[in-house]
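Open question from group meeting: does this chain pack into something compact, or does most of it stay loose? Before anyone orders reagents, we agreed to write out a predicted structure and look at it together. Recording both the input and the output here so the notebook holds the full record.
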Amino acid sequence: MAIVEPLPTETGERRRWALTSPVDRSALGEWEASSAADVDAALARARAAQPAWAARPIAERAAIIRRAVEVLIARKDEIVESLRVETGKPRAEALTIEILSSADFLNHWSARAVRQLRDERRRLHGYLLPVKRLTVHYQPLGVVGVITPWNAPFVLSLNPITQALLAGNSVVLKPSEVTPRSGAWAVDVLREAGVPEDVVQVVHGDGETGAALVAGDVDKIAFTGSVATGRRIAEVCGRRLIPCTLELGGKDAMIVCADADLERAAAGAVYLSMFNTGQVCLSVERIYVVDSVADEFVRLVTEKAAALTYGAGPDKDMGPLFSDRQLEIVSRHVDQAKQAGAVAAVGGSPGKGDGLFFEPTVLVGVDHSMPLMTEETFGPIAAIMRVRDEDEAVRLANDSAYGLSASVFTNDPARAERIGKRLITGSVVHNDAATIYGVTEAPFGGRKASGVGQVNGVDALRKFTHAQPILLARWRTKSEHVWYPYTADTEKTIETILRVAFGNRFVRRLMS
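Structure tokens returned:
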């Protein structure tokens, strides 16, 4: 992300900040923060516009979102340029992480909107079946606030906004203040596709602007970001009794079994630790390799990591860290690990020059006494720890405050599944990692400090609605059997239902 510098302002003036390139520290311009009054005004417009948007047929909303795919493809070079300017990530990563994933999300959710959101008739069981029928109506929540981070600012904005809009809500986005243009592109694309301006809006600013959005007239908050901020948002939403989805940090473990394809495992260890400069919540941050194959695995990882190129040029494998604050964290974790006995088999130092570069790094001899193995690092570090066997690997993988995802490298899918079910994580991936967020059918979310709630999955759009059951009477009657006044016939009717419906095992099975 770009380097953020608050600018001095006079009393009563709007807060402003300047952005500086993480590649060469050149100036990227200045931005003005939305005030609490600006946020309230945006929310008021969103509230006024939402009923008309929700009143449109689901298929009509879906057609608009589907057109956004064409807009995205037409605008991809402009969006990629914004991403590269603000983050410095290689073009290949911008296209893969941000553009390709976004196109898939738009296409997928728009194709499934009618099926997921139309009224659903549900068959009742037992003694209610003859007298009642049930319809579940998926009612939009109203106004959704979306707050997104800097590491994948376009796709992590577009995906939740798209889901909320298809469900019939209006949305106000607050992207990270360090990638403001990249995040705002999500709103631009959707508006160009035909979403009304007041139905999807953007406000800019730092944590103060985000706090105003959370405290404002919203019906749900969808947040992706740090654990500390997520806790504060949860507290406010809890007091207000509104739902929130919190996708927070990760310290994902990779387990390398004795029967793993070591070539693939080593290639995965390097890429999955270092793509996007390691700044992905699903990055591999801890690698546990069974001792019997550890020497060869370390050799292969070292060889592959040493071949990586990094720097400012378009032909480099790895760009800069996106933030000066992140460079400080990565440097500190690596230095502490080396001081405690870890060895840098590759890299281990900040890069030379003005940019926020850190060398592709492989550390061996690490353990859980080091913050590198317990705190989120968010950098291009492959930290490798030898373990006796898979049981020790599982124990150490679970020894974490986080629980976002994990990966198991083995040639035996059954072994991967057995190990995966023992891991206390939101998801598990076999012979890969990080891809789970892009698997639209899979519910995605973390355990422990990694978050609350899930996104995506087969009922993703419904998570932006209230499932409203409507129970209808099958017959026109003056009253129910158990209404006042109570008489001997009332008790007799209930006794008959109990005897006939529940007094016989075969009938109970039929009515269950």
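Observations to bring back to the group:
The CA atoms of residues 41 and 418 lie 52 Å apart.
The chain has a mean pLDDT of 95.
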